[in-house]
Structures are given as C-alpha cells and as structure tokens.
Amino acid sequence: MADELNIVANIPKKDKYELLIPQLDALINGETSLIANLANVAAALRQTFGFFWVGFYLVDGNELVLGPFQGDIACTRIAFGKGVCGTSWKEKQTIIVPNVDEFPGHIACSSASRSEIVIPLVSNEKVIAVLDVDSHVLNDFDTDDKDGLEKIAALLTPCFG
C-alpha cells in the first residue's frame, strides 16, 4: 500500500492521470473496504488536481446516496434521472458540463460549483455508483479528464464485490 502520492505539479493533466492511475491501483490493491478505497480515491483526486469537490454517490434503490467525498457538504440523496449525477446514472455514460447553470435541472449543492463531470461505475451492465467531480472554474473538464476518470472508475468497480 502506498503511503503518499507522487504528484508532479507543472505537467499536463493527461500526464498527471498517467502518473496517478498506477498509484491508485497500488493504493486500493488488496484493500477490502469499499469505503476506504472510495475515500482514498476522492482524496487523491482532490489533492492531485485541486478540484473543488470530488465524491461518490452510491446506488440505493431508486436514489443515489452520498458516499465518501472531499469538499464542502453535499446533497445527500439524488433521484434517478435528476441533475447531472442522476442523468449520468440513467444514461449510463459520462457527462461533462462546461457550465452547470446551463444544465437543465442541475442540482446546486454548492453555488461555488461552475463546471462538473460525472462518471458512472458500471458492473454487469448496471450502474452501481457515480464519481462526481466539480470545479469552481467554468469549462474545466475535457477529454483528458473523461479518459482518466473513466480508467479510475474501472479500477474501482471490482471493489464493489
């Protein structure tokens, strides 16, 4: 298990993901606690990229329930198909929102959030959770984030058992 992250500050985002992913794999490898793994990944993403909010919502019946996160307090429950997280769950796909004020039905857990990316974690063709990342900067997420965060989601999916 890793004791600390090796973070290089002034390199492109894509390169940061390439350095971070194997470190996360080592961090979660062999750890059986889902909560510990989700918490460490949220912390690592926030520490590496300085995102405003990083966390997980876990599928519980017809709702997403707040799981481990890093950042300000958040919405506790989100209905299927509602907001960016619920829409990502419904559509089973990553959603990048350059400006949250322009997303129909956006749920504003914090007025400081300006852009967002949500990645579904899928097992046996069912969404089991979503990874939600918010930025206080407009248009902060791109295909490098999509690709990197989807790889991280794939690392975590087996942790759900």
Structure summary, number of beta strands: 6
Strand and helix order: HHEEEHEEEH
CATH topology title: Beta-Lactamase
The total tally of domains equals 1
What is the CATH architecture descriptor?
2-Layer Sandwich
Described by strand count, sense and barrel closure, the largest sheet is: 6 strands, antiparallel
Give the C-alpha Rg: 15 Å
Instruction: Report low-confidence residues grouped into runs of 5 or more.
Output: none
Mean pLDDT: 94
Overall helicity: 25-40%
The CATH superfamily is known as GAF domain
Q: What structural category arises from helix and sheet content?
A: alpha+beta
CATH class label: Alpha Beta
**CA(first)-CA(last) distance:** 20 Å
User: What is the 3D form?
Assistant: globular
Share of β-strand residues = 25-35%
Number of helices: 4
Description:
- The protein has 161 residues and is of the alpha+beta class.
- It has one domain (13-160): Beta-Lactamase.
- The chain is 34% helix and 25% strand.
- The chain has four helices and six strands.
- Strands 3-2-1-6-5-4 form a six-stranded antiparallel beta sheet, with helices on both faces.
- α1 (13-28) runs antiparallel to α2 (34-49) and α1 packs parallel to α4 (143-156).
- The longest helix has 16 residues, at 13-28.
- The mean pLDDT is 94.
